[in-house]
Fold this protein.
Amino acid sequence: MREVIARQLRLGHADIGRLTFNPRSRDAHHTYLGLCAALLSKVEETVADLPLSLLDSRSGNDLQRWLGYGWHQVDLVRRRVLDGETIPHGDKIFSLFEDYSEWLSKGKAGVPVELGLNVCVMESADGFILHHQVMQHCPDSEIAVTMVKQAKALFPSLSACSFDKGFHSPANQRELAELLDRVVLPKKGRWSQADTARETDPAFVQARRQHSAVESGINALEVHGLDYCPDRGLERFKRYVALAVVGRNLQKVGAILQARALEALQKDERRRQRQAA
């Protein structure tokens, strides 16, 4: 029975919400939670006898953190299985080791969900990544203005920017219009007459068509290692993303230099051919 219960618990909170708990399963969970609580209480008693110098150290902090995780998991299973409660998203823990991880619903075929953090990328028309931001507990609509302000501080000549619909809000439309000469920010929902005139403007439509080019930059980041972060901790996650962005820009510089070198070789070859003729 213990092996079956362990399998059920390893399904995680998202899958456990779709299970049907019969009386036998509830009894097994009740027994298992009692065992967990007894073990956690025993650990707490042991920790209470440890010297203060150890408790104030990193190891002591880790002990307290893991104890907190243990009681939290017991509480979640009790509320979900025994009390029949639907667990709020903010109470769930998706990774004990990388506790900053979020449940990301991509909405893509074959990739229903991922664990990690979203990264917003701002790319120039030449394919260079000008700015990026790791998004923690932050929807797209809350970072549009901040991203533009930070990018303009680095690149004062920035005068136009195209966004996805997820970045739209009335406030963003107004504030971005004050920062940029041209804002390409599609509106979600129904259009007003002014929205229709703006989004059917040829310049707006052309910019939207070019916007899809940023997907190639995102794909290049993923292909060269940014689809998975092997480092531990939030700060290392951010550093890994930043290094990947630098690597992508260096790769872009290399591609430009290679193209120039190839063009120079082709010019030399054409010149030799003309001289030989």
Summary: Confidence is low (pLDDT under 50) at residues 1-18.
